Amino acid sequence: MSSLKSNFLDIDIDKILSVPLSTFSHDDKIIWHHETTGIYTVKSGYILASKFADQEAPSVSSLSTQLWKHFWKLNIPSKVRIFLWKAVQECLPVAAILQQRHIAASAICSLCRSNNESIVHALFLCKRAKKVWRGSSFLLDRIIHESSTFKDIFFKASETWPQQELEQFACILWSIWTERNKEYHGTKPKPHEVLLVSALSYLGEFQASRQASPTNLRNEVHRNNEPTRFLVAQSSSDGQVVAAMSKPHPGCFKPEVMEALALRYSLQWLQSMNLPIHYIETDSLLVVKGLQARSLNVSDFHSVLHDISILMSNFPGVQISHVFRSANTFAHILAKYALSVDKECVWMEEIPPPLMTIVL
Ligand SMILES: [Zn+2]
């Protein structure tokens, strides 16, 4: 895990952990990941190629998705985010928009009186805004020249600048807007140099306060660790709980792979505990059918099924059958319980506490 952490990003680590490896020694095989059988088909190759083609020529909707992705990632105060959201949605009360809605008589900017007051004018082209941007490190001329709306500008900015600069950009915009409103209402606005410094220090203070809060950080880490899946194993005989185990498992898997991994882990565990079994019940029909079919497919799912077959041969006469989810309540309560613990829990010859409520 430490070598994964030092070499890969979190998002890739999750994917690497999601590759279920066989616990037995095997020759490596090439698997076509885009088919459940693991075998290449022209159809799945065509679908994948079409997806790549779409990525090369992003559609309007994917551009918009990218824009919102940048937007939600920004580490900025919520009032700045709300302001930015309104600007992107063309919802700021500027004269040009108010006139279109028959709320204002004129679209002319009442501060400079030289142009219509659009959102772009108010935030970039009006006299004070221009001075602020000139005093900043942001080179906006080309972006503004190529854009007709604020949304275009923000999209180009989010493509051009790193997130940190985009956050500064957002806070400067918000300060320009706030000072404009003050000026409208007769309050003397801050000089443009002061506005720039106060916008950036406002952002700096906000980000420092978030970093200093361990609770926030811990929540983030927890959220980033998702999706974490959980394994469960249970062995019973004559209606008595002989042994039960509940275990969290890192990584993100397809449901059938998850069920297969849970079964594989249970068999390994039972073997290590020297516990005999005669029947295995699972609510995964895919696992049962996959084991019965003994197919030559080579997907990750089939690789785990292959391990299960080998492990099952250590329990002579063992049979596996499918039961409906509702009949497998014990296992599901244990799986749910595993969500709340971060280590393996084992109960021997006792009713596991999470099951007390349904057994008693
Ligand atoms: Zn103006």
Q: What do you see in this structure?
A:
By secondary structure, this protein is mainly alpha-helical. The protein folds into two domains: 62-211, no CATH class; 228-355, Ribonuclease H-like superfamily/Ribonuclease H (Nucleotidyltransferase, domain 5, 2-Layer Sandwich). Helices cover 56% and strands 9% of the residues. It has 18 helices and five strands. It has helices spanning 2-7, 10-17, 42-56, 60-73, 78-88, 95-100, 119-125, 127-135, 141-145, 150-160, 163-184, 192-211, 214-225, 255-273, 285-293, 300-312, 329-340, 356-359; strands at residues 229-237, 240-249, 279-282, 319-322, 345-348. A three-stranded antiparallel beta sheet has the order 1-2-5. The chain has a two-stranded parallel ribbon with strand order 3-4. A hairpin with a 2-residue loop joins strand 1 and strand 2 (240-249). Helix 5 packs across helix 11, helix 8 crosses helix 12 (192-211) and helix 11 (163-184) crosses helix 12 (192-211). The model is unreliable at 213-239 (pLDDT under 50). It binds zinc ion (ZN). Zinc ion is lined by residues 109, 111-112, 115, 117, 121, 126. Residues 40-133 form the Reverse transcriptase zinc-binding domain. One of its GO terms (molecular function) is RNA-DNA hybrid ribonuclease activity. InterPro entries: RNase_H-like_dom_plant (IPR044730), RNase_H-like_EbsB-rel (IPR052929), RNaseH-like_sf (IPR012337), RNaseH_domain (IPR002156), RNaseH_sf (IPR036397), RVT-Znf (IPR026960). Residues 224-338 form the RNase H type-1 domain. Pfam families: RVT_3 (PF13456), zf-RVT (PF13966).
